[in-house]
Amino acid sequence: MRRSARAAKRLLSRLAADSLRRETLTTTRAKRSAPHRVYDELAGRIAELGRQAHQRGWALGTSGNFSAGTSRDPLRLAITASGMDKGRLSPAQVLEIDGEGRPVGGGGGRPSAETSLHLAVVRARGAGAVLHTHSPWSTLLSDLHAGAGGLAIEGYEMLKGLDGVTTHEHREWLPIVENTQDWSAGAAEVEAVLRRRPDAHGLLIRRHGLYTWGRDFDEAVRHLEVLEFLLEVVGRSR
Amino acid sequence: MRRSARAAKRLLSRLAADSLRRETLTTTRAKRSAPHRVYDELAGRIAELGRQAHQRGWALGTSGNFSAGTSRDPLRLAITASGMDKGRLSPAQVLEIDGEGRPVGGGGGRPSAETSLHLAVVRARGAGAVLHTHSPWSTLLSDLHAGAGGLAIEGYEMLKGLDGVTTHEHREWLPIVENTQDWSAGAAEVEAVLRRRPDAHGLLIRRHGLYTWGRDFDEAVRHLEVLEFLLEVVGRSR
Amino acid sequence: MRRSARAAKRLLSRLAADSLRRETLTTTRAKRSAPHRVYDELAGRIAELGRQAHQRGWALGTSGNFSAGTSRDPLRLAITASGMDKGRLSPAQVLEIDGEGRPVGGGGGRPSAETSLHLAVVRARGAGAVLHTHSPWSTLLSDLHAGAGGLAIEGYEMLKGLDGVTTHEHREWLPIVENTQDWSAGAAEVEAVLRRRPDAHGLLIRRHGLYTWGRDFDEAVRHLEVLEFLLEVVGRSR
Amino acid sequence: MRRSARAAKRLLSRLAADSLRRETLTTTRAKRSAPHRVYDELAGRIAELGRQAHQRGWALGTSGNFSAGTSRDPLRLAITASGMDKGRLSPAQVLEIDGEGRPVGGGGGRPSAETSLHLAVVRARGAGAVLHTHSPWSTLLSDLHAGAGGLAIEGYEMLKGLDGVTTHEHREWLPIVENTQDWSAGAAEVEAVLRRRPDAHGLLIRRHGLYTWGRDFDEAVRHLEVLEFLLEVVGRSR
Predict the structure, then answer these.
(1) C202 with C173: CB under 8 angstroms?
(2) Residue D26: which pLDDT band, with cuts at 50, 70 and 90?
(3) CB atoms within 10 A of CB C108
(4) Which of A48, A129, B136, B177 could be bridged to A217 by S-S, CB 3.0 to 4.6 A?
């Protein structure tokens, strides 16, 4: 009798842990070193964001990739492995890379094909997290406005969700760069564009999607939602 | 008995239970006084609504804020803290303020930057709850119709979901006020607009979003869904 | 030890409270008579459909109502109570009415204000279930095509989801009737329209929404999804 | 004490009934032979995909059907039974057929009415999985472009999610075939079209929907999401 009561209690505590992956992470974390805890926390956040972005239709068909810095010096990023279904993304599908894009730990798989672009954003902005989505609206508008080299979004309250923007009268310029399959060369162009426009909070790749970033993961997620929202408003206003 | 323990173990391991924040709240609540119970109940409803509104795309990027009266005299509101991600909104991110917008209890953080606007609605309408969303359709239509000073919605059955409306032949006028970053002054304008239009059930802030309210939380949520629905119909009918 | 057993019990009760309403229903059902089991089953299905329709944006702001026949002779319907939030609809918010629309059992509340319309459909079609939704597309199209007295949908494979339709070459005519607030008179008109068009699987109320039905609940749900899908396709094709 | 143990057991049984279908499957699987495990795994994946596609509005009203090869020689497919509600699709609503479309095992029901089409795709492509959805965009665009005999999608990054496509400069041609109710004849036409266009990754049936496939289930799901995404972008760009 005592045994069954104890078994019930033990199992119930496991149950709570079993429900949320984040909870599980917390449990595991307690036993790990500080750097591991940072990595585990960010891999969990990346996996959760991937599933949400997939659900919203912003990362279908294994598209989209997400990274977050786990260390500044030496530079280390947690980044989604290449080719993963974001609707089932787990922390084990996130790996750790160094400043040259070489895997140094974390889950298995190869780093995302667009790793050099993430690193370019980190270099140009000192970003703590870089998020890339493929929504219908970003795909469509990055094509329509490619001739102008960018898309201006102005006068919306939602712009105040962008770091440093304190009024809706802000004019946000989203540069548009041509798509390429050679991101080792392309990354240099992206880095140059970002240095020319130090005020930009995001970047569109033509017929490809949105890149945005933030000092930390929370800020990057906020920028992502702000910009995807504004692209939808602009798209529906046509 | 060992059999029942094993059965318990087997069954438990199969469970993938979600630990509901509301359940936890219920437990905590049992030990609290009546005013606290009112506050806890409303903080829970606000958090739940925030997550739903985020899921529908009505409160992305930390936008949106929600309040509910916990006491009339003295006036006390439960209101979302500033800058919270609505997709993860918890009751602990709701705080209690007095009629001047000063925090008097509840969760941490600062009250929403638009607190004065919530208080203006409470003064002008005697509202028991005030809800503010940033949907694409309200953002887009509040801009298109700004020149006319408002948007008329007429002849829809859904209008009957608004308090006191008994026929679809009703004509609802949603005033549109210019956006501002000075809501201490702006709140006076909003209050004046609402007193001039005592029949209005909502209000649009240009390129910013919708405000609506109700005598209690349920009515406010109904008004929110009714108006967001109608804005979508009007937007898609263009 | 007794404390740990009590703790387990307390935790389990909380988990159980979080469990599916349908499960609870099943348990309760075992002790009830056959007619009660039919009622309970249908009340559960109605509540589940309400929550789904709300999630899809087809029943916002307490709009929408759903009924299912629990007995032919005497006629008895399970029908949603008036004014309920469909996003939280529970079986207890469904009640049982007779052929005159008078409550005879089930949950509390008043029957839906459009009860006479449900009964008209049951009389004209011998329907076993009647479903009414307020989607943006049905609202919008019922207005655009009101002048023609109806909307023809033709040539789509999805039409084969309608009872008795065996080819996509089918032409479905959805009659449109003017909205009214006097459904005791309006119901007679609806019944007359349905008798004139014995081939129609649904009906639009102008600026109000869709009515559809089926021999049983499953067929009615299928008709609902088929017609809402087709209205979206027609709406987006404009 | 015994009472609390019994109470625990009773509550647990109810909770367990509410547990995940996949869990149940896993448990059952442990006792089954290797071919059965392949079948069970694929039936589970098909059921899960059906529920997701329904949730996205790609398989409403019992539309859509999905298959996956369980054996090459002899040819065996797991395929959705005809007329099932995809929102509630369970592994028991998937059955196993041979190369002539005759049921040889698995769940109950008749194989999908479009079984011959699935088999045509398997013959023409050696596909390991065939997926068919009815989204609004595929329905609408398959009609608009029917005159041209197909729809070209070119220049999008998302195209790289298609097997063998290594650059966004790829031009994907989606053949459009007329809808028919005689799929024993129609299947031959589909097979001929696919053999003429060995580079196509999908196929539209006019006013009916999309067929796509992959070497295995994961690849087919990726192709489905890629093509549905691109159809939405093309549709919204009009």
Answers:
(1) no
(2) very low
(3) 10
(4) A129
Alpha-helix residue ranges (DSSP H) falling in B164-216:
183-196
Intra-chain end-to-end CA distance of chain D, in Å: 70
Q: Which residue type occupies D171?
A: R
Q: How far is C4 from chain A (nearest CA, A)?
A: 7
Cα–Cα nearest to A69, from A97, A111, A33, A108: A97
Instruction: Count CB pairs under 8 A between chains A and C.
Output: 17
State both tokens at C217. 């609940």
- The most confident of A108-122, D23-37, D75-89, by mean pLDDT: D75-89
Report chain C residues whose CB lies below 8 A from the CB of A7.
none
Across the interface, whether the CB atoms of C2 and D7 are under 8 A apart is answered no
Structural contact between residues D52 and D75, judged by C-beta atoms closer than 8 angstroms? no
Structure tokens at A55: 């659900």
Q: How far is D81 from chain B (nearest CA, A)?
A: 28
Q: Among partner residues D7, D18, D235, which is closest to C19 by beta-carbon distance?
A: D18
pLDDT of amino acid D31: 57
Write down the H helix ranges in B131-182.
136-144
Query: What percent of chain B lies above the pLDDT cut of 70?
Result: 87
- Tell me how close the Cα of D23 comes to any Cα of chain B, in angstroms: 6
- Residue that is written with structure tokens 């089954």 in the block: D32
Per DSSP, the three-state class of B16 is coil
CB–CB contacts below 8 A, C to D? 91
Taking an 8 Å cut-off on Cβ atoms, the answer to whether A134 and D155 are in contact is no
Over residues D203-238, the pLDDT tens digits come to 999 999 999 999 999 999 999 999 999 999 999 998
**pLDDT value at residue D6:** 54
DSSP states of C150-208 = EEEEES-GGGGGSTT--STT-EEEEEEE---S-HHHHHHHHHHHHHH-TT-SEEEETTT
| Reported confidence tier of residue C6, pLDDT bands at 50, 70, 90 | low
